[in-house]
């Protein structure tokens, strides 16, 4: 019988128990960080040689040289052509919906002119080259190809470099077909911290990128965190999480399966239910026990639920929303009557799914919004992957002759106040016009 933690918000020590549940087990966390830092240092030092060794070790890919880690475009096209029609249609439908949603995020350059002719603005530029991490250790993720590549393309990024591990040496045709549909420029069959390192530092075979985006397991998330600064990263999108708030009036089988849906990603995934209805919590627990045996990935689900899940009885839905804000989950389902009323109270969540019919799984594949989302409480300050992650902004300042007098005076006073003489004189030259030979 599966053992899942039962908590009640009225219990003494509830806050501490919840905090402990949310934190990664610190010994494990430290072990992952140490492994990742060794791998990154090795990739930086030995490049392709190390990349090949780790890829052979972790993914059991039998490549003779680092050059074999890259797949030719013909392989992507072959995968696309070989797909059964229903899979190709589903992929293309999902791509079209994800594209339609993300096009709305495209930021444009803007500027305005002040009465004295000074022009101010913001120039928006796409990144030149990005690395897209598509997970592939315990499952294959064609949907993550769409979620990574479509916003990058919409932003106008010139070069998309995708990495994905060939677990047990095997590539996945749906993943490669998705790369073909999205017109990804180059695909490497590498994963984990070694792939992140290769993209961040560059090796002979793998080009250095400007930014690495995409989800992955704890090793990938830790590696992305470590290389930030050498390259940009989108966010920490680690092991999946689902938090369900239910008023007790949704079919318990549906809720149990929603919890499974994220638990089946990874032993480190986290699934939590909050409900004020004690009887409903018992029904969900019974449904979990009953449905688990039939799940092909029951071992992963069981490990995830036993280690990191909780069924929590709360006083009421107000308290459930307050706890949700504290958890700041990657995914939040509001399986309640009038979800549009309760969503007003939610401030921190990667994606919010409203109503009994909105299963989180729809967001994973095809609703339209991105499924690359912040985890481990980082939804308090991070957002879903979007077109904005592939665009950057430069400020534009063009001061007119008239404007240089007005701004020059302000700047000069402030510069003197800061004790920065050169700043002051640089501003003053423009409006006093007494010193340079060309002005004479
Ligand atoms: N937050 C999000 O937006 C989001 C979206 C999709 C998936 N996910 C998560 O992505 C993850 C996918 O994980 P995955 O494992 O299937 O694929 P993955 O590609 O993220 O990880 C596989 C790689 O991990 C490395 N690895 C595994 N065990 C290791 C060890 N002991 N030491 C060093 N390296 C090791 C290997 O290099 C391997 O290639 C899951 O946790 C899933 O929940 C998150
Ligand atoms: N739930 C994942 C994000 O945590 C995304 C995904 C892809 N495929 C299935 N699920
Ligand atoms: Zn999922």
Automatic annotation (TrEMBL):
CDD domains: Histidinol_dh (cd06572). The active site is at residues 330-331. NAD(+) binds at residues 133, 194, 217. Its EC number is 1.1.1.23. One of its GO terms (cellular component) is cytosol. Zn(2+) binds at residues 262, 265, 364, 423. It comes from the Bacteria. It is an enzyme of class 1 (oxidoreductase). This is Histidinol dehydrogenase. It comes from Nitrosospira briensis. The gene is hisD.
């Amino acid at each position: 019988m599966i053992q899942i933690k039962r908590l009640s918000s009225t219990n003494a020590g509830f806050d501490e128990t919840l905090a402990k549940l949310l934190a990664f087990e610190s010994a494990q966390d430290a072990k992952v960080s140490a492994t990742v830092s060794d791998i990154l240092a090795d990739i930086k030092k030995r490049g392709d040689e190390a990349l090949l060794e780790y890829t052979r070790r972790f993914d059991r890919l039998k490549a003779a040289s680092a050059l074999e880690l890259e797949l030719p475009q013909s392989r992507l096209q072959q995968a696309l052509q070989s797909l059964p029609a229903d899979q190709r249609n589903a992929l293309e439908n999902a791509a079209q919906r994800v594209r339609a949603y993300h096009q709305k995020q495209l930021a444009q350059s803007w500027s305005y002119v002040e009465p004295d002719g000074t022009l101010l603005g913001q120039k928006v530029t796409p990144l030149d080259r990005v690395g897209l991490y598509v997970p592939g250790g315990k499952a294959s993720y064609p949907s993550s190809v769409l979620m990574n590549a479509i916003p990058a393309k919409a932003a106008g990024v010139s070069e998309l470099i995708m990495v994905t591990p060939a677990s047990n040496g095997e590539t996945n045709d749906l993943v490669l077909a998705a790369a073909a549909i999205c017109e990804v420029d180059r695909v490497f069959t590498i994963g984990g911290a070694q792939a992140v390192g290769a993209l961040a530092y560059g090796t002979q075979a793998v080009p250095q990128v400007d930014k690495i985006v995409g989800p992955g397991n704890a090793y990938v998330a830790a590696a992305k965190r470590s290389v930030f600064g050498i390259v940009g990263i989108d966010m920490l999108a680690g092991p999946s999480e689902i938090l369900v708030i239910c008023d007790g009036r949704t079919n318990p089988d549906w809720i149990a399966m929603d919890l499974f849906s994220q638990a089946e990603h990874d032993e480190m995934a986290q699934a939590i239910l909050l409900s004020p209805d004690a009887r409903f919590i018992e029904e969900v627990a019974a449904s979990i026990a009953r449905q688990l045996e039939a799940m092909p990935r029951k071992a992963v689900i069981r490990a995830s639920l036993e280690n990191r899940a909780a069924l929590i009885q709360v006083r009421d839905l107000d308290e459930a929303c307050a706890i949700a804000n504290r958890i700041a989950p990657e995914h939040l389902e509001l399986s309640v009557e009038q979800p549009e009323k309760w969503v007003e109270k939610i401030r921190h969540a990667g994606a919010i799914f409203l109503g009994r019919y909105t299963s989180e799984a729809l967001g994973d594949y095809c609703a339209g919004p991105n499924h690359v989302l912040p985890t481990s409480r980082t939804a308090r300050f991070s957002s879903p992957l979007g077109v904005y992650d592939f665009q950057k902004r430069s400020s534009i300042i063009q001061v007119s002759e008239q404007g240089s007098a007005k701004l020059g005076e302000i700047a000069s006073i402030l510069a003197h106040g800061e004790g920065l003489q050169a700043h002051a004189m640089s501003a003053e030259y423009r409006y006093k016009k007494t010193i340079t030979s060309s002005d004479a």
